[in-house]
Amino acid sequence: MVLFLGVLLQAGILEGRLVDRVVASINDDAITLREFRAYYDSVRVVTPEITEGEAIQTLINRRLILHEAERMNLEGRTEEEKIQRYIGIRIRSFVKIRQEEIREFYREHAGRFRGLSLEDVSDKIERLLIEREVNRRLREHLNQLRQKTYIKVNLMSP
Amino acid sequence: MFRRIFKADSLLLIGMLFLLLLLPLPATGAEKGTGEVLHYSQTVIEGLTSMERNEFMYLMGLSGGKVKESDISEGIKRVFRKGLFDDVSVWIEDSVLRIKVKERMLIGKIVIRGNDAIPGKKLLKRLPFHEREILRYDLLPRAKEALKEYYAFRGYPDAEINLEVKDGERPNMVRIDILISEGNPERIRMIDIEGYPDYFRANMKISAGDIYDQEAIEEEMVRLKDYFHKKGYHSPVIGPYTFEDGLLTIAVNPGMKLVVRFEGNTSVGDGDLMEVIDFDSAEKIDEEVVDENASRILRYYHRKGFARAQVAPVLRTADDVTEITFFVYEGKRYTVGDVKIKPVGGSLDNTLLEDLKGVLSLRKGGLYNPDSVQEDEARIRDFLKALGYQKAVTEETGVEMKEEAGDVYLLFLPRPGPRYTIGEIIIQGNTVMNTETLRGIMGLKKGDPFNYVDLFEGRRRILNSYRERGYLSADLRLGTKLLDGKVRIMIKVREGTPSRIGKTVVRGNIDTRTEVILRELNYREGALADYRLFPELSKRLYETGLFNDVNIRMIEGEGETRDVLIEVKERKPGIFEFGFGYSEYEKMRGFLSLSYRNLQGMNRRVTSMLRLSKLKQMLSVSYHEPYLMGKKIRMNALLSGSYREERSLDTKKTRYKVRKYLGEISIEKKLRKHLQGKLTYSYSLVNTFDVAPDVVLSKEDTGTLGISAIMPALLYDTRDDLFEPRRGILAGASLKIASSYLLGETDFVKLSIEGSLFRELTRNIVLALLVKTGLAEGFMDTTDLPIVERFFLGGRNAVRGFPQDELGPRGEDGTPTGGNASFMTSVELRTRIWKNLGLVFFFDAGNVWRRISDMDFNLRKTAGIGIRYTTPVGPLRLDYGHKLDRREGESGGEIHFSIGHAF
Fold first, then answer.
1. Which chain B residue is nearest to residue A59, measuring alpha carbons?
2. Which residue of A has its CA nearest to B5?
3. ipTM of the complex
4. Which of B123, B560, B665, B840 could form a disulfide with B866 if both were Cys (CB 3.0 to 4.6 A apart)?
């Protein structure tokens, strides 16, 4: 927010009032300052510690995934639905956790599961391992998408 | 206990951290239509060179002096989709809207220098960017790295790549100069072949002293692998290779030789069985691969009716040879004696039983394939389910084999179960279309057999109807309920709001101005967002001839207005063409053509052409304007100079020679869907000389004559294909009025009427009919038309039993004079006999009369046959026309060769 104020203050002195500008672009898809500001304000409600730099990167990640989802003609009523559908098809459906991995996790974290049998926590461990693997693969996938995409970020004033 | 479980759950939360990569949106960004309304009296755009101000303002949505802040944001996003900008910012100060743009640079040209060892084309392929793409500075280091790696791969490890971005030919274009210093190459000092040196010594294309070029080495390895394959080795392994201190070491292991034999096959030859088996795709030969191939052989025998065939493979491996022998017992060949279908646990009417037989692959009299029995059982089940027998199953099929006769009798036993019909169709939530309309669109009604395939097809149809009306986010929820043996279908419609077309963003047009694309639009801003508009628009854009690729789509969004994105890839605007051919009249002939089809980026075309043959020479320059003064009226202008000699094909005697200079201008407009109007003015200066004395009918037949004429014309065309019409009509009429009042030297009126009709009789036979007539009359001092304007018939397109222009009245020495009136008709039966090859049977009749008053029913008739070979530019044609009323001194018929149908 300090940055925005800085931008606006500077703009006010030098050029009149800034109405809007491009703060990032993903190929030919622009993220405007106004759009970013609305996003940043809303995510800070749930993640107060997030920085502007992190927020713009997550917004870029979302656009990357959305572009891919649109390329695959995935339907969804909201952006969120499309993103989740894409992750489901492109990432989650390829993740398989073997029983051996669940047993190993149980063994390694035996202290935390005192009193609970492997059978009791097996489902939860599986879900955890799936999420962890989805997370890892998603990060890799986003890196690949970023490699082949022209991304520019300009959070500073023009 | 609960605490411990909570601990386990907290681990899950840690795992969900991936969300940080994509932080779900509590609100989806800035809302449309919000923010302060800005009033402005002036707009200043700084830094814009790559597109016109008007287009920029249109895309920004700026007009009328006021705009909402949120619309500015939308405008920035929209204009960004052009792909031309790195930054756009909008400021307001004292009612001045100031827009600053930072443009991206286009790569105009890539120049490579210093590359002696590797051709520039190969190096260009290695670059991550190409000419006419946006310059991405982040790709420059990658390009340098890619070239350096490729040079090292080709044996130049010390190559230095220097890359510079310089100003291009336009303000928003750059030139990339790549300067290469190749350095000294690494050379092969010695080659060591591990395992199989003999072949290398005799056949290798690389040798000691050569550059260590890995591309050449890998090509050599592929060649070597092929060599071993041809020698019968199944899976030779060539490589890997190493290179150290100039020593190239390549490992070669030819592997095992494969020998395949067949024993016991008498009805099917070894060659056919070799086609059936496939060992090439297997990495190694083992029992599993051999068994799979035995199954392939067995299935092949089954398809041929050998129902009791057996195949037993034996695999032997000795030294470096793998030997596989397939022992075949063929048995008898069976045909299907009869097929019966007997319902079990219910009944089916006889018509249905006959229909069921129709879907089976096993039919009476056909070969019996035991593998088809199960497939046919599945077909019966699917068919019954489509008719509402949702629980249909089949019992085991009875197969009775009559050994002596070699017949098989089949008894299929379907158990249909209850038949479900549609009870009610309840549709809720629809407001745009009423329930009856939706039921009609769905194609289902009460009492119809129920099946899910038709139900989902109905859903698709309804959704399409909604989308055609602009309801792009419409959705349907389907529900079914069984009540008293009838299925109640419940449909809940969520219509959403209708979308309308917003602005149109055009991108990819570097040379072509955006207005050239926008003027072809078949919709207006604010129209319902109907996807069906796009194929037609795409066709229109391809027809401009400017683009290789056209992609049109709605830009994704959730609002009521959807922008349209048209993305094009431009063709090269300059075209050089040449060609040559042979005709029985002109002999060798050729042409050279140079054209540019996008003058000023407006799709204006200029073409210069030179045509040459012994009898005709012509040089012309033409200009084409597709939109005259911004209206959809085509204009063509032509200037040409030509020389022509008309000769008799039989006697080789010159009839006359013409030198002609022509200036012509015409405008064309589409009046209706298939109707086109055209108005032409032409002035020609015609010098006719060396005219055979008996051809001279008027004083205007020799010497120089100025003909000034206007020609209104109408053309009606409903043909389905220009080159190979199968249905439709082509009809045209034109009137040429030449007069001294138009500053000419001759006066006549000339009417030409032509109509052709095409009908597809069967898939391979087309009937084509033609009627054509020409009527002319001189006025004031002109009686007979000048020879260059008179009608002639005969030749490859007109009454084919006669040579070129030889039909009609003749002079005292027998030279055709042409005339003021002509009529011809033609009937063709066009058949396709095999692939692109066709036969045509034709009948032509026609005649030429000196005056209109001389016209009678005395038509000369010819019949003939022709061969056609279809090509993308029309069929190659060879015709023989035979005179049915041959007169003394005339040939029996004529052979003609050309491209394209006669009409």
1. B22
2. A113
3. 0.86
4. B840
At B81, is the secondary structure helix, strand, or coil? coil
Torsion of CA B77, B79, B83, B88, to 10 degrees: -80
**Any chain B CB within 8 A of the CB of A8?**
no
Judging contacts by C-beta atoms under 8 Å, the chain B residues touching residue A115 are: 1, 4
Question: Which of these, B844, B847, B804, lies nearest to B825 by C-alpha position?
Answer: B844
Reported as type and span, the H/E element at residue B214 is helix B214-230
**Interface probe with B: pick from A17, A19, A75, A77, most Cβ of B within 10 Å:** A19
Q: Does B77 reach chain A within 8 Å, measured CB to CB?
A: yes
User: What is the per-residue DSSP string for B715-778?
Assistant: EEE--S-SSS--SEEEEEEEEEEE-GGGT-S--EEEEEEEEEEEEEEETTEEEEEEEEEEEEEE
Q: Tell me, what amino acid is at B41? A: S
The pair of structure tokens assigned to B752 is 């030409």
- In three-state secondary structure terms, B342 is coil
Q: Give the residue on A whose Cα is nearest the Cα of B32.
A: A35
A95 and chain B: CB distance < 8 Å anywhere? no
Alpha-carbon distance B353 to B141, whole Å?
Answer: 72
Which class for B198: exposed (0-12), middle (13-18), buried (19 or more C-beta within 10 A)? exposed
Helices of type H across B452-532: 452-468, 514-518
B562-607 per-position pLDDT tens digit: 999 999 999 999 999 998 877 767 778 899 999 999 999 999 999 9
Q: Which residue of A has its CA nearest to B94?
A: A16
Residues 119 through 148 of chain A touching chain B, CB cutoff 8 Å: 121, 124-125, 127-132, 134-135, 138-139, 142
Pick from B17, B82, B92: which is nearest to A19 by CB?
B92
Radius of gyration of chain B (CA): 39
Q: Over the stretch B744-761, which tens digit does the pLDDT of each residue have?
A: 989 999 999 999 999 999
Average pLDDT for runs of 10 along chain B of length 903: 44 47 58 75 94 95 91 95 93 93 93 96 96 90 96 97 93 94 95 74 82 95 87 86 93 88 95 92 87 96 96 90 95 95 91 93 95 96 91 95 94 94 93 93 91 91 89 88 88 91 94 95 92 92 95 81 94 91 79 95 96 94 95 96 86 86 97 95 93 76 89 97 92 96 92 97 94 94 84 92 89 85 97 92 96 93 95 88 90 88 91
Which residues in chain B touch residue A130, judged by CB atoms under 8 angstroms apart?
A: 15
* Three-state secondary-structure class, residue B193: strand
Cβ within 8 Å, pair A28-B92:
no
| Interchain proximity B93–A15, CB inside 8 Å | yes
HSE of B34, CA atoms in CB hemisphere, 13 A: 7
Residue B816 · residue B805 · CB < 8 Å: yes
Q: Show the tokens assigned to B709.
A: 């004429």
With 0-12 / 13-18 / 19 or more C-beta atoms within 10 angstroms meaning exposed / middle / buried, residue B46 is: exposed
Find the helix or strand (DSSP H, E) in which A53 lies. Answer: helix A52-71
Residues of B in contact with A113 (CB under 8 A): 4, 8
Alpha carbon B751 to its chain's center: 39
Q: Which of B8, B81, B90 sits opposite A124 (nearest CB)?
A: B8
Beta bridge partners of B78: none
User: How many interface pairs between A and B have CB atoms less than 8 angstroms apart?
Assistant: 164
CA pair distance A61, A146, nearest whole angstrom: 9
Cβ within 8 Å of residue B782, ≥6 positions away: B698, B700, B746, B747, B748
A116 and B98: CB-CB below 8 Å?
Answer: no
Longest dimension (CA), chain A: 68
Which tokens belong to B230?
């041809």
Place of tokens 């050309």: B898
* Closest residue by Cα to residue B262 from B288, B293, B306, B219: B293
* Contact between B18 and A134 using a beta-carbon 8 Å cutoff: yes
